[in-house]
Predict the structure.
Amino acid sequence: MSKKLFGTDGVRGVANSKLTPEIALAIGQAAGIYLSRSGEPQLAVLGRDTRASCDMLAAAVSAGLCSAGVSVYDLGVAPTPAVSFISRTGEFGLGVIVSASHNPAPDNGIKFVGHGGAKLPDETELAIEELIDSKFDRPIGGSVGRIQHGRDGIERYLAMLESIVPERLDGWRVAIDAAHGAAWELGPTILRRLGAKVCATGTHPDGVNINAVGGATKPDTICKVTVDSGSQVGVAFDGDADRAVFSDGQGRLINGDRTMGIWAEHTKGAGRLDPSLIVGTVMSNGGFVEYLAQQNITVERAPVGDKYVAERIRSTGALIGGEQSGHIIFPHHGPTGDGLVTMLELFRVLKLTGKTAAEFYESYEPWPQLLVNVAVDATAGWQETLRDVLEEGRERLGSRGRLVVRPSGTQPVIRVMVEADEYAARDQVADRIVSAMEQRMGGHVEGRVDLTYALGD
């Protein structure tokens, strides 16, 4: 059976339209029934980002959990990774996050993490869906779940973050863009605790400005703020703070590839990168892969999506894995991406080496990489329809590039990523494939992004 509500990252939709409080109530109740039968603690910890709709949906999902006998500890606004940390370090059977991450403010979502802090596997999400509207013995009286509001656990999370950089950051000037999201308070707080002077933007959420200007998905803002403030480095988070991207002091973007490269090179040099590999994705840049190969570091490619990166980390024993978007997992800190952890791990490398982010930026030159999103009438049968032109493209690129074509999981869109060691070959292959899609599939180009010095999905 296939899931009807849960997507690749929880349940998402426009709040109060597609994702209604009735749906949130039903999901919460089903999750509560599942938890009550699991043997795990009958207590859930809940956090949210800063969207206006979060209070409504958090109240609904909490009511559903309570109706099944599960009590809720509501943290209020908290980063997704903080909920994961508190879930796995406290007596909680479930973590609940109300957030749509990097999506615009009208959207929202509900996602769960288990007792160990990891996102629920597909089979568990399917089991929860199957319990919606099911009959169960409703608790009454003192057995009904209760809701408590508090911030216990947040201080433990901050203490964990502070421990990542025992050398501290005294004398540093750091720019930060919190995207008016879940890290608006904790991001500047942890940097100031470590002694840094902070120039902050995106720290005044009003319920509708989350991700609107700046943040990890619009890194031009942090690049400009870093230069204008005279900071030596800048960091930008997305709405729920599970990803981070950076700017060097010259206003150049340091995406997830570069961040992992800096960390892996240093850790390898210190004799601590065992095994000598990192987990990337099919979107990881060829220049990045070639550079790491020169350091005797292998890149294992996973499909796009943090769930797949996490699975490959577990199977390989890698110490780091992530995506160009800045969603990076350090498994020794937890099973999910954490933008604040990523920030501090990078800053510690800079501190230990005495090098600036700008110096590390010069380590390698990325290969020209292009992403074209093509809207089509339908994606069914796309592989057979495009077989000849895709084979032609791969033959044209040979060992000098890569071609990744994949349909969107939620829209009638096919994403075409072409990478080559020079621009002309890249563009020729991309144009040939897109032209075939327009002629054979009724397609039209929705977006064309040069990823060479930018962000992937």
